[in-house]
């Protein structure tokens, strides 16, 4: 009797846990049957969050298994999928490097997807976008592991200033990416089309749908191939290829490293400006590992008030607080200086603030052979580290930097051209003198020969 009761309770719990997923799957199926035109199609039902479930209540020991259980985007199977399956499965080193980077972020991304009742295979999208590299930067100026261009980043309130670029921030960019994907799904009612719009833009997808509708053609993702650029045409097949490999790595002779189904990092409050190197030291992390979790910070000092958080591995957060309490020194060695005119050269600033031109250029990402225009705000070392004043919020929000070619270089260039011209002129004069000398000597010899002959 007790055994029967336990089985009944287990079955009831399982049904309750799966109910949202089953409801979501039903929504996905019905959305494939309805017309796909965004101007005609009614908006899909709002996505309902998963019930709160603790990580230790999952049967899966690692995040890969947790992702597999939440697959919900309809599969596609075509030559492009096969092409990318072969590409990924034949590169174990690439998969290993990408998985190592992903191990820091995957638990958090999957958790956020489940909160929004979104398909968990979307957690694999950064593999396609950036190979899970939050420092990735494209030719189109897209940044971060979710690859936001500046304009779309601003649309989703991702702050981009001299000190910070939240397109690279783990928490902010993930929240923005999932919000964007949800919005696109609301427009198209279809995840493949939403993904196409994420890559290509919703306006382009809408126009492609209208073209096919006008021709009486289907408007699903694969039916729009002819209108898509190659990158978008292969976008969902790439994700499908990764899905296939994660679903059954042994079938493709791939070995996935275990990624624990537990949080990798936690958030830590920052109470004042702190040098990035000092923060890493207090957390007992390498600067490289610290930047991997906090890639949004552009400068060697982390500014901002209480809303600015830093991410640390679980075991290092406690070390950070303990070491911070015992630090007893300045947390920041940087302040700002506003360029007022031509007298503020990099060399003069270095001398004034007791450092070298190379340090100032590196701290501010100032290109070689350039100088700062008036109005630029830059970081300089604090002359006295006993001064604990933080960089003012309005300075952080409004700081800009502009460059121009070094004037000395241009003057030097003109002088060099003048010197070359004078050198050439001198050579020509010397040559003329030699020629004139030769001609005079020749004329004298000719005259002598003429006289000897009795001329």
From TrEMBL:
Signal peptide location: 1-25
A Pfam cross-reference name: SLT
Family the entry assigns: Belongs to the transglycosylase Slt family.
Region (Disordered): 434-455
Domain of life: Bacteria
Family matches, as InterPro entries: LysM, LysM_dom_sf, Lysozyme-like_dom_sf, Transglyc_AS, Transglycosylase_SLT_dom_1
Protein name: Transglycosylase SLT domain-containing protein
Bilayer-spanning residue ranges: none
Domain LysM: 335-380
UniProt keyword annotations, A-Z: Signal
Entry keyword Signal: yes
PANTHER family reported for this sequence: MEMBRANE-BOUND LYTIC MUREIN TRANSGLYCOSYLASE C, SOLUBLE LYTIC MUREIN TRANSGLYCOSYLASE-RELATED
SMART domains noted in UniProt: LysM
UniProt keyword Transferase present: no
């Amino acid at each position: 009797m007790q055994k029967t009761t336990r089985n009944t309770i287990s079955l009831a719990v399982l049904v309750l846990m799966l109910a949202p997923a089953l409801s979501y799957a039903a929504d996905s199926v019905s959305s494939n049957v309805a017309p796909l035109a965004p101007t005609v199609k009614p908006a899909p039902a709002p996505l309902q969050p998963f019930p709160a479930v603790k990580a230790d209540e999952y049967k899966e020991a690692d995040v890969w298994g947790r992702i597999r259980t939440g697959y919900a985007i309809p599969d596609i199977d075509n030559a492009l999928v096969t092409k990318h399956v072969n590409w990924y499965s034949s590169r174990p080193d690439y998969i290993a490097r990408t998985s190592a980077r992903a191990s820091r972020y995957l638990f958090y991304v999957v958790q956020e997807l489940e909160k929004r009742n979104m398909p968990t295979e979307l957690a694999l999208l950064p593999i396609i976008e950036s190979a899970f590299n939050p420092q990735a930067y494209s030719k189109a100026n897209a940044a971060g592991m979710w690859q936001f261009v500046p304009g779309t980043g601003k649309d989703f309130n991702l702050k981009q200033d001299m000190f910070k670029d939240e397109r690279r921030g783990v928490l902010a960019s993930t929240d923005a990416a999932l919000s964007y994907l949800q919005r696109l799904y609301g427009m198209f009612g279809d995840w493949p089309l939403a993904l196409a719009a994420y890559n290509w833009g919703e306006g382009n997808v809408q126009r492609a749908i209208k073209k096919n509708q006008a021709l009486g053609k289907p408007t699903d993702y694969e039916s729009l191939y002819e209108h898509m650029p190659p990158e978008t045409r292969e976008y969902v097949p790439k994700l499908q290829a990764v899905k296939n490999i994660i679903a059954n790595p042994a079938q493709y002779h791939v070995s996935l490293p275990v990624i624990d189904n537990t949080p990798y990092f936690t958030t830590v409050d920052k109470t004042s400006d702190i040098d990035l190197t000092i923060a890493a030291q207090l957390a007992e992390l390498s600067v490289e590992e610290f930047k991997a979790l906090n890639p949004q910070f552009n400068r060697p000092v982390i500014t901002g008030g209480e809303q600015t958080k830093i991410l640390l591995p679980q075991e290092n957060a406690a070390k950070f607080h303990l070491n911070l309490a015992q630090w007893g020194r300045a947390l920041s060695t940087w302040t700002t200086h506003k360029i007022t005119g031509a007298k503020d050269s990099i060399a003069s600033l270095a001398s004034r603030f007791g450092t070298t031109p190379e340090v100032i250029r590196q701290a501010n990402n100032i290109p070689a052979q350039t100088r700062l225009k008036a109005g630029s705000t830059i970081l300089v070392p604090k002359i006295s580290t006993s001064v604990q004043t933080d960089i003012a919020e309005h300075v952080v929000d409004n700081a800009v930097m502009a460059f121009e070619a070094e004037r000395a270089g241009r003057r030097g260039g003109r002088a060099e051209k003048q010197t070359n011209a004078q050198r050439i002129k001198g050579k020509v004069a010397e040559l003329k003198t030699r020629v004139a000398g030769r001609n005079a000597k020749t004329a004298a010899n000719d005259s002598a020969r003429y006289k000897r002959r009795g001329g």
